[in-house]
Design goal:
31% helix; OB fold (Dihydrolipoamide Acetyltransferase, E2P); elongated; alpha/beta; 5 helices
Length: 223
């Protein structure tokens, strides 16, 4: 048979590679696992691995149902495992920090304890008045002022929103901090942990640049 008469047979169907797309939810679950690593530093982000767990388990269920149409089971299971591990590790770590961060002799307070109570007279609640002269532990952020380095005094606010993006904080969302010698601090966007004696005034005490405060802290420790 001449070359011109050569008959080309069609390829065997078994030689074709059957393409299956990777499940998009398995990829999303893995992405959540990666960004959830930040939850090991910030407890507020522990919701991320929870979302990652839900997405990953949904992906596993979806791939099992449509196993002939998509792939990515290994990725989905890996993402689920990583999200669970990050959530458990982060929760345990932050729980340990919370349980051990308050020095002996100090009581934990938050800015929520300093807010006015609807129906009660005055801008300062009685629960805050009772803290006057007490040794307390409180966390917050440094409100930016004109001076940024080697600060002996600054204003503490409850969150980054009021610190950097919210303009003038509410009067009860500010504590004037004065550091004992030789303590000094530089301005940063990092979370601050302070100990000291809280002073509560029921009349506003003026401070240059921000109007005034009801609360002052003579701080003997800062981290």
């Amino acid at each position: 048979m001449s070359s011109s008469e050569t008959i080309f047979s069609s390829p065997d169907q078994s030689e074709y590679f059957e393409y299956k797309p990777i499940s998009s939810t398995s990829v999303v679950g893995l992405v959540f696992a990666l960004i959830s690593l930040a939850a090991l530093l910030f407890p507020e982000l522990l919701l991320l691995p929870v979302i990652g767990i839900i997405v990953s388990l949904y992906s596993v269920k979806k791939i099992r149902k449509f196993r002939d149409e998509m792939t990515g089971m290994g990725m989905a299971k890996t993402a689920a495992f990583l999200n669970v591990a990050i959530f458990i590790t982060g929760s345990a770590y932050h729980s340990y920090i919370y349980a051990t961060e308050v020095p002996e002799g100090y009581q934990r307070i938050s800015f929520a304890d300093l807010q006015p109570i609807p129906g009660q007279p005055g801008p300062v609640p009685q629960t805050a008045v009772e803290l006057d002269g007490e040794k307390v532990f409180i966390k917050g952020y440094t409100f930016p002022g004109e001076k940024r380095r080697n600060l002996k005094s600054f204003v503490l606010v409850p969150d980054l929103g009021t610190c950097c993006f919210g303009g003038q904080p509410a009067l009860t969302d500010m504590i004037e901090v004065t550091l004992d010698d030789p303590l000094r601090a530089d301005y940063s966007m990092s979370y601050r942990k302070l100990t000291g004696v809280l002073e509560v005034d029921q009349e506003i005490k003026p401070i240059s640049g921000i109007g005034g405060v009801y609360y002052r802290l003579k701080a003997d420790g800062i981290k």
